[in-house]
Every structure is written in structure tokens, then in C-alpha cells.
């Protein structure tokens, strides 16, 4: 009598024997199509370099104009204290509102400082001085950042003056807030964007690679051969996903290395844990690629649908650029079905914060649920298409 374990081992061996030829064929097709291989391997690095430098929320070198009606030593000192940094570049000094209006309207300046003619007199009399600041609000994010810079440097100037006028232990009390930023103390945009770009790039590349691989069988009329073969649905899926998953994993490693070399974004957490999350996320993306291939009739259609179902959801609903808590409640609910949202949370936790599985176990649970659901749906659809 055969032992149950022996029967199970025989079934596994037979299944592997059917999977290996499909996987081998996929690898041969990818290696023969060198252009696609180069695209799927090196384009992610190129996208990281391009977006890493282009997507920058740091507002620096703001073109600034000055109308100093006082033109005194104190007014010049104040202007220097505000603009002597990398955030403001004085492009011109003007003498009227018309000049300010013209320069802001044609885009030559983003902010204008207007100092009154009695600036020095009020300072010397210890009176409050109101200086007008005109901002170009057509770029709201830039304007908000500029206001923050102005408040910061104005407070520094006021504090400096207070210390000069009330030295030592004279009866003057002040409150000074000392912020401390964790995980990204320099507030570098690259540290915020690189993990998001990794999730964004891997999602797009994995879905496209898988969808094109599956649709290729339709275009070559080899689907009928697969249908009449003894291969099972899960064996077909595993075999077809072998090459795209390996290429996507290599792309993930190259993206991480590029982020470290060019942007100094190193992995503070456990590399093994990062690899596990990346593999699970890649399989969710590959599952989406299978669904795309089922409804696509050609590689062009598969490519178009892949971009639609990955680009916008990953860009908007993952927290990559836009904070989810600021969105309407209905959009926050929609974000719960985007696997990139959970992977991105894990990425930022591992790469930037260096936290472990204890803090990120919920993300793994959601990714696994998404993975199971997507593959069950894929198997059901494939079965209805005639695979048994």
C-alpha cells in the first residue's frame, strides 16, 4: 500500500514537471526579446532618476523683489536676515507697485517685500512695524512654503533683536520652540519620494510584463494548445509568472541601489523583511496583470489597460504624493483596495524608520488578503475561459 506522503510527493513532482517547461519557455522568450528585457530591467532605474530629481517639493531659490522705502541700515539688515539663504533670490529692487505687479504677472518674481519709509524710526522707538508681503498664489503649494519660510526668518530676526535689547538676566521671558524631526531630519523630498517611486514603478512594470506575457499566447494562437494539455490553472499561472516575477525582483534591487547611490536613501531596517514584503507585493501586481490579460485581445490593449489600472490608482490612492487623510471619506475607502498603499507604508517603515514586523504586520495581512483574492478571481475567470 502506498504511503499518503508518497502520493502527495508524486503529485508535487508531476506538477513541477508541468510548470518547468512553461517557465523555461517564458525565460527563453524574454531573453530573445532583448529590447523588452532592457526596458523592464533598466527603465525602472531611469524612471527613479527622472522622478527623483523632477518630483521635488522643496521650494528653493524663489525669485524675490524688494521695495525698501526706508532704505536705512536697519531695513537692509532686516532684508538680509530674511533673504540671506537658499530659499530667496533677490532678482530686482523696485520703487513702485506697478513694478511689482509687472514682475509678478510675467512670472519674473514670486514674492515681493515692501518695507515702509518709517521702518527704522519705529524699530528705534520699539514699535511694531508692519511690512507688506505680496505673493503669487497661482502656485498654492509654493506660496504656502514661502509663507512658512517668511514666518520662520521673521521670528528669528525678532528673537535676535529681543536678545540684543534685553541682554543677560534682564526681566524678559520668551518661549522658543525647538522642533525635532524624526526619520527625515533634513526634510529631504527624496526621502519621501524614493519609497513611493519604488512601489509605483514596480506596480506598473510587473503588471505590464505579466499582461503582455499572457496576451502573447492569444496573439500566437497557442491558447488552444494549453487548453487541451493536462496542465492545471495554478500551474499555468505559476509558470507564466516565473520570468516576470524574477525580472521585477531584479528591477526592485536595481531601484533600491539607484536610490541609495544617487539620493542617499539607505535601508535602515531589515533587508530580509523588505525582500519578503517586496515579493508579496510583486505577486499581487502579477495577479493584477493576469486579470488584465484575460480581458485584453492584443498586447497594445493589454499595455493600455495596464497603465490605466496601475498609474492613476498607485499615484493617487497609495499615499505616494497626496496624503490619504486629506481626501474625502469615500476616496479613503477606495484606497483600501489598492495594494500599493500597504506596501508603501511598509516601505517607508522599513527604509526610513527602520521598524520591524511588529509595527507592520497589518500591512502584511492586507497584502496577503489581496493576493489570495486576486489569484482566486484569476483562477475562476481562467476556468470559465475553458481551462480545466
What series of H and E elements makes up the topology? HHEHEHEHEHHHHHHHHH
Task: Count up the helices.
Answer: 14
Sheet with most strands = 4 strands, mixed
**Strand residues, percent:** 5-15%
Strand order in the largest sheet: 2-1-3-4
**Helical percent range?**
55-70%
Into how many domains do the coordinates divide?
2
Give the distance, in angstroms, between the N- and C-terminal Cα atoms. 30 Å
How many whole angstroms does the radius of gyration measure? 29 Å
Count of individual beta strands: 4
Can you tell me the residue ranges where pLDDT is under 50 for at least 5 consecutive residues? Answer: 170-177
Shape: elongated
What is the arithmetic mean of pLDDT?
A: 79
Structure class: mainly alpha
Quick synopsis:
With 388 residues, this protein is mainly alpha-helical. Helix content is 68%, strand content 6%.
Describe the overall structure.
The chain has 388 residues and is mostly helical. The chain has two domains: 18-55 and 189-384, no CATH class; 62-165, abc type-2 transporter like domain (abc type-2 transporter like fold). It contains 14 helices and four strands. The chain has a four-stranded mixed sheet with strand order 2-1-3-4, sandwiched between helices. Strand 1, helix 3 and strand 2 form a beta-alpha-beta unit. Mean pLDDT is 79; it is low at 170-177.
